[in-house]
Amino acid sequence: MLTKRIIPCIDVDVDEDGNPAVYTGVNFENLEYTGDPVEMAKHYNEAGADEFVFLDITASAEGRETMLDTVRAVADEVFIPLTVGGGIRTREDIKETLRAGADKVSINTAALENPALITAGARAFGSQCMVISVDARRRFDGDGEHYAAVNGESCWFECTVKGGREGTGRDVVEWATEAQERGAGELFVNSIDADGTREGYDIPLMRAVCDAVSTPVIASSGCGGPEDAYEVFAEANADAALAASIFHFGDYSIRAVKEYLAERNVPVRL
Prior knowledge:
Strand order of the largest sheet: 1-4-5-6-7-11-12-13
Oligomer: single chain
Strand content: 25-35%
CATH superfamily: Aldolase class I
CATH class: Alpha Beta
Largest sheet: 8 strands, parallel, barrel
Mean pLDDT: 93
């Protein structure tokens, strides 16, 4: 059985002085300064993380390029797989991000706007490099394609872009299936509703995507502790659990989360 992965993530923006900085928020808003991206990367590399995710959270919304100098500095400090996302719009962007030290690229907005980019990237660099990020939000109306029961109501999940700022009308399950068919090597599923709440992953969302695809799924948003990681593995069959604030603020260590999972017979790398 493949081991389940525990992945810390940093959301990087530029501070008032134009320097890269890590921020943490709730529902993609109310961002709070958390630390230096390079120092945090070094810490998580030493702490036993299985992989590391670097997201430039405003690059797409502001129409600017990913901060590749910071990516290079982070890549120098981590010796585990590094995924970089934000502002990646073209095949050349993918190439330059990988050249800067990323092992994988995470793409959301550009893939939705130009799905052929997934195919082009997979052919040029390999499917293992192509992580398609999905920022999903719940909708309780009749405009979706695939529905799940959420608190006794029928709900579908909509793809959003630009850090959850804009809806697309696209059904998440439908899009995940297409992304897989086009060559995505992994799906990175974020819940706008659960982001930063520490109230647990959006299990109906994660289950809907995991049931629809065979491509590995990274569950993101809402982790409040080891029990939430266990739930998303046991109830949704996610392949990896991503978390930010519980690690950033020292509530739990990566080791503690993994030991909790191992005690419950979840295969992890200790």
